[in-house]
Specification:
8 strands, 2,3-Dihydroxybiphenyl 1,2-Dioxygenase, domain 1, 4-stranded mixed beta sheet, globular, about 40% strand, alpha/beta, 2 helices, about 120 residues
Length: about 120
């Protein structure tokens, strides 16, 4: 018997759920699918991200979000990144154009990239 994988969703520990939700909702235009005091699920297109209340020892993690038009996204979000650590779009030697953003109140780094054509 075989099965089909539907999604692989990251689970991001956060020390401030509402601030982390705000990053995904207000900057990257995710919608909230489910929210309570300890757990949030956000969605955009076919991608879901789970945000959970962090314990004492938060591990580090990195996420890679591949998009179809990085420069359009950058134009839309660059003014919303005030106060956040980020790197502006850069062409990488491995064939990707990327933005790097530290996700608020987490130990997570978000890479947003597009294949260079």
């Amino acid at each position: 018997m075989t099965y089909k994988v539907l999604f692989l969703s990251p689970m991001i520990p956060s020390t401030n759920l509402s601030e982390t939700l705000g990053f995904f909702r207000d900057i990257l235009d995710f919608s909230t699918v489910m929210e309570n005091e300890a757990y949030i699920v956000c969605q955009k297109d076919n991608l879901t991200i789970h945000i959970l209340r962090a314990g004492q020892d938060i591990g580090e993690m990195e996420l890679y979000l591949e998009v179809d038009n990085l420069d359009t996204l950058w134009s839309k979000i660059k003014d919303r990144l005030i106060g956040l650590k980020f790197k502006e779009p850069i062409n990488q030697a491995y064939g990707m154009r990327e933005i790097h953003i530290c996700i608020p109140h987490t130990n997570a780094l978000l890479f947003i990239g597009q294949k260079i054509r």
